[in-house]
Amino acid sequence: MPAVERMTITMPVELAERLRQTVAGGEYASTSEVVREALRDWTRRRDAERQELETLRAAIRAGLDSGPAIPAEQVFAELRARYDKTA
C-alpha cells in the first residue's frame, strides 16, 4: 500500500454536505474516497490541458518557423487570377 498522509481540508458547507450525502447514499465508502477520485480526475484533466497547450505551442512554433507570412490580399489576388484563367 502506498504511503498515506493525513490532511485537513476546508470547504464550503454545501460541498461538505454533498460529500456526506454521496457517502451516505452508498456511492463511496468514505469521504476520503470521494476526494481521492476527484483529485485523480483533476490530475488527468490538468495533464490533458497541459498536453493540449504544448501541442498548440508546437503548432505555433512550426508556423513561425515555416517562413515569412504572405499578406492575405496577395493570396486572394493570386487565387482570383488563377480562377479567372480557368473560367
* Radius of gyration based on Cα positions: 27 Å
* Cα shape: elongated
Counting H and I runs of at least 4 residues, what is the number of helices? 3
Strand content: under 5%
Q: Mean of residue pLDDT?
A: 94
Structural class: mainly alpha
Whole-number total of structural domains: 1
Instruction: Determine the N-to-C terminus distance.
Output: 74 Å
* Order of H and E elements: HHH
Fraction of residues in H or I helices:
over 70%
> Biggest β-sheet: count, sense, barrel?
none
What's the total count of β strands?
A: 0
Low-confidence stretches: none
Notes on the structure:
The chain is mainly alpha-helical and 87 residues long. It has one domain (13-86). The protein contains 3 helices and no strands. The protein has helices spanning 13-24, 31-65, 72-86. The mean pLDDT is 94.
Summarize the structure.
This protein has 87 residues and is mainly α. Helix content is 71%, strand content 0%.
Which helices and strands occur, and which strands form pairs?
Blueprint: H1 13-24, H2 31-65, H3 72-86
Features:
elongated, mainly alpha, 3 helices, 87 residues
